[in-house]
Amino acid sequence: MDSPYDLLIANAEVVTASDRFVADIGILDGKIQAVGRGLGAARETIDARGLLALPGGVDAHCHLDQPQQVGRMADDFKSGSRSAACGGTTTIIPFAAQMKGQSLRAAVEDYHRRATDKSCLDYAFHMIITDPTPEVLTQELPGLIQEGYTSFKVYMTYDDLKLNDRQILDVLDVAHQEGALVMVHAENSDCIGWLTDRLTGSGHTAPKYHAVSRPQAVEREATHRAITFSELADVPILIVHVSGSEAIEQIRWAHGRGLRIFAETCPQYLYLTAADLDVDGYEGAKCVCSPPPRDPANQEAVWRALSHNVFSVFSSDHAPYSYDDPDGKKPNGHEQHFHHIPNGIPGLETRLPLLFSGGVVGGRISIHQFVALTATQPAKLYGIYPRKGSIMVGADADIALWDPTLQVTIRNQRLHHNVDYTPYEGIDVTGWPIMTFSRGRLISKSFDFLGQAVAGQFIRCGKPILSF
Ligand code: DUC
Ligand code: ZN
Ligand code: ZN
Question: What pLDDT is attached to residue 453?
């Protein structure tokens, strides 16, 4: 049949960050060719009556196959992208981390080797800057920004990753000159070290002390300091994985002063608390991540801040370590002192359903805020909009069809990552993306992964779009 479309998604209720309407979506060569009523015939038609058509998610903070000092990540680009696709995500932006002494370009090239021909989803990279030598600051970083690596993360903690205040200012200055976006991990390293020594010195080594060693004050102080640096360097920043009310207060304060501080939060700060680090002896290690989850009052503060648009981005911070694994949280069956447990939890596949259920179905955020937080705004901030992040003519046909009423109990056995647990085991959610299309190809359907033969493309990022 001669048809202008390879695929027609018919009768869908299309939802974007601003609009909601019933339409057909005509797809040709992986792009959205038309959005309208009665688009006619196509080589293949999927009737999406009763389903929501949302832009595929952009997970702008996830870690895959990232070399580590402690532990080894359970997901590479193959298993990670598969898992993301089955949870309605169509673009991932993990981190190419520079090791101290390594050139930035070597780090990026190494990371390309890890991703190429493995990811079923399109992907971009943030860089992690750990060694801002003069060569990095004046040559490598400006060059890589021009080549499409327009965002990078700096750490204020972790001995192998952290920068001092002066180094952070130097990195921010490059972002200012070149038009890039710096993501900041805001926790005070010396405070954590001091608290950790006190706790371990008095025999407090169980997983629950991870949260005690990183109280909100540690995050609040670093968040304030990062905001100050942003003001001094006159460049916007994005504070990643904000965990509770005290850091939120700092961000609101900055907004009140007219500073361009963007912020991200994650599912763990809505669904977990520090009490989850204190279950069944050592099992709490499964929920060790940084910053740590807080308490129910802080969960509410994070929900409130989401509904008030304090946050621009909602990411998984998928940092996958298995529990019962030689390279995991309990290596060879050995319990670790809390400060030696690999930091991070899995979440690529559950990110969107958890926010949809608690936020949209729960009446805390609108469905347009959901789309903005999970797709449109990360696409804009990280320079891949309008190719990604919305449903419009000319965009890639990255679409998730959601059944907004489907009731699902999260079980690790149904997920597609390579991690031996999910911290969200047994949580009931309403709404799930039952079909995911990546550039017009159906890669996941009803909890099954169909994209084995599909190759994702590397995306060079443009300059951040900082107003939306
Ligand atoms: N920071 C992250 O962004 N991810 C995992 C652990 C961490 O500290
Ligand atoms: Zn971090
Ligand atoms: Zn992270």
Answer: 86
Pocket of ligand 1 (CB under 6 A): 63, 185, 240-241, 289-290, 317, 319, 343-344
* Three-class SS state of 4: coil
pLDDT in tens, 113-134: 999 999 999 999 999 999 999 9
| Other Cβ atoms closer than 10 A to 298 | 21
Looking from the CA of residue 61, the nearest atom of ligand 1 is 3
Q: Are 137 and 174 in contact (CB under 8 A)?
A: yes
In angstroms, rounded to a whole number, what is the distance separating the alpha carbons of residues 166 and 182? 15
CA 1 to ligand 3 centroid distance, Å: 48
Per-residue pLDDT at 275: 98
Please answer whether residues 247 and 186 qualify as being in contact, where contact means their C-beta atoms are separated by less than 8 angstroms: yes
Distance CA 465, CA 468 (A): 8
Q: Which two tokens stand for residue 449?
A: 């992964």
| 100, burial (CB in 10 Å: exposed 0-12, middle 13-18, buried 19+) | exposed
CA distances from 176 to 137, 228, 259, 263 (A): 12, 15, 14, 18
Give tens-digit pLDDT for 24-35: 999 999 999 999
CB neighbourhood size of 165 (10 A): 12
Q: Which long-range contacts (CB under 8 A, 24 or more apart) does 301-304 make?
A: 301/244, 301/245, 301/248, 302/242, 302/243, 302/244, 302/245, 302/248, 302/265, 302/269, 302/270, 303/270, 303/358, 303/359, 303/364
What number does the ligand 1 atom closest to the CA of 291 have? 8
Q: What is the pLDDT of residue 3?
A: 84
Question: In the chain, which stretches have pLDDT less than 50?
Answer: none
Q: How much is the pLDDT for 301? A: 98
